[in-house]
Design brief:
heterodimer, A: alpha/beta, B: globular
Chain lengths: ~180, ~325
């Protein structure tokens, strides 16, 4: 067999060398945890980072004081499945729309965005209507967060870089209800 | 069925990646890293475009300043007009399979520069300081036009030497005040360095460390490339230009001496053999329950009807 036909054979069902479909092909959920804006408190973000690691995910932590541009660029290069935004400064109504717009501009509407920190409950509907999947306030368990991410992200990376997940709160699978 | 002509999605992704689309590059890396079914096709298309990048490995103990140094090298190479890709590797938890990838924190200032692409990778169970698909991810960056590719290993102890095979130039970062002179004469990472860096050189003990390293190098087998020892204070951007000069002159040395091709061949040999091993194992496992397969062989072994070497050859014959 020449080279070309080997590759074609692999595509036709003979699993690839080094891409063992039976045991080795693995999609790890990749999550970016980001601190947009100017507040300097990242205990919560670090706890979530650690919690998602323990849930088997690969978590990229960006550190404090991130601009929307920095967050979206990191998410793009890291090809993450989800972005968690932790904010305690009260600037979410300014920063979140900018992040969501940048994601859209980059064709990244297949990325799940969730928020945490201090966000007044009465402002949650407005935030969800931006296309953010969930707001996890104080008291949310790490299991709940991890479960929500698992249920609302893709299970394999695809060749197309705009994905099946649409923005809009109705489309999210609620972790607690969907528990089998 | 799906050659590249009839797999337009793969062709399109490769085309975009080669044209410099960063999102396409990010997705190509994901597919390769995940060993997804499309990875074989993608690597087949990308391989002809590889072989142009200078691959630099950065290794050293946790906390020695690898990420900060990488960040400084990014800035210096950008000043020199090179595009740059970074693969930053952190360990996967053996208990949960998860990982925290935090090297990026020290490389944030380059976010507006489209000539810089930084990707964090988890080891995913691979020992030796690299992630299991590191070489292929480096190839993807190379194909997509990154002239310099820096691979930052996990914080290594003493024996994580895989980077020397993956990189053209291996840079080992040492810091003053860690360990005594016996550390310097042990085998391991010190032997694989092409360039030695004493980082945090404003600390006490720099000259002591320098002497130990020099003594160690003076006893090493004589090679044509003299391993230089450089002092940097990465957090203050000091010594970076001199370091970059050395990295460039090492590449020039590799090319003029013919060692470049030798190293390339040695690396490919390792990779090819490991792929062959993987493939044989996979085929044997796939036929595990068939007559004459792994299960039957095990039974025959238990009953002392065959010996190990014989059983292995029989399985190999069946697998091919």
């Amino acid at each position: 067999m020449n080279q070309q036909s080997v590759v074609t054979a692999v595509e036709q069902g003979e699993p690839a060398v080094g891409s063992n479909q039976e045991t080795q092909s693995e999609h790890k959920i990749r999550v970016l945890i980001a601190k947009p804006g100017l507040d300097g408190h990242d205990r919560g973000a670090k706890v979530v980072t650690r919690g998602l690691r323990d849930a088997g995910m690969e978590v990229i932590y960006t550190g404090l004081h991130q601009t929307p541009e920095m967050i979206v660029e990191a998410a793009l290069q890291e090809d993450v499945d989800a972005i968690g935004l932790s904010i305690l400064s009260g600037a979410h109504n300014v920063l979140f729309p900018r992040i969501m717009k940048l994601l859209k501009d980059n064709g990244m509407d297949d990325v799940l965005v969730f928020a945490g920190g201090i966000i007044p409950p009465e402002e949650e509907p407005a935030i969800l209507s931006m296309g953010i999947g969930a707001v996890f306030g104080p008291g949310t368990t790490l299991e709940h967060t991890a479960d929500f991410i698992r249920k609302n992200t893709r299970h394999a990376a695809s060749l197309a870089t705009t994905g099946p997940i649409a923005s809009g709160s109705e489309t999210w699978v609620d972790a607690t209800e969907a528990k089998e | 069925m799906s050659s590249i002509e009839t797999n337009p999605a793969a062709a399109e992704l490769v085309r975009r990646g080669l044209a410099g689309d960063r999102r396409a590059l990010a997705r190509l890396i994901t597919l390769v890293e995940n060993r997804s079914p499309e990875a074989t096709r993608l690597m087949h298309e990308l391989t002809p475009h590889t072989g142009r990048a200078h691959v630099i490995g950065i290794t050293g103990a946790p906390g020695s300043g690898k990420s900060t140094l990488t960040n400084e090298l990014i800035k210096e190479y950008r000043r020199r007009g090179c595009t740059i890709g970074v693969v930053a590797i952190d360990p996967t938890s053996t208990l949960t399979g998860g990982a925290v990838l935090g090297d990026r924190i020290r490389m944030l200032e380059n976010y507006q520069d489209t000539g810089v692409f930084i990707r964090s990778m988890a080891t995913r169970g691979q020992l030796g300081g690299l992630a299991s698909m590191t070489n292929d991810v480096v190839r993807v960056m190379d194909a997509c036009g990154k002239e310099i590719v820096i691979v930052e290993t996990v914080g290594v102890g003493q024996d994580e030497v895989d980077i020397a095979r993956a990189a053209h130039t291996t840079l080992l970062v040492e810091v003053p005040g860690m360990g005594d002179d016996i550390q310097a004469i042990k085998a391991g990472v010190l032997e694989i360095a092409d360039v030695l860096v004493i980082n945090k050189a404003d600390r006490e003990g720099v000259e002591r460390l320098n002497l130990h390293l020099q003594a160690m190098l003076s006893l090493a087998p004589k090679k044509t490339w003299r391993v230089p020892i450089l002092k940097t204070i990465a957090a203050q951007s000091q010594g970076i230009s001199e370091l970059t000069d050395k990295l460039e002159s090492h590449l020039a040395y590799l090319k003029s001496s013919g060692e470049y091709l030798q190293r390339e061949r040695a690396r490919l040999r390792d990779e090819l053999l490991s792929r062959v091993r993987e493939e044989i194992t996979r085929r044997v496992l796939r036929r595990e329950a068939q007559p004459g397969g792994l299960s039957e062989m095990l039974t025959q072994l238990e009953n002392r009807q065959v010996d190990l070497a014989e059983a292995a050859l029989l399985l190999l014959k069946q697998a091919l």
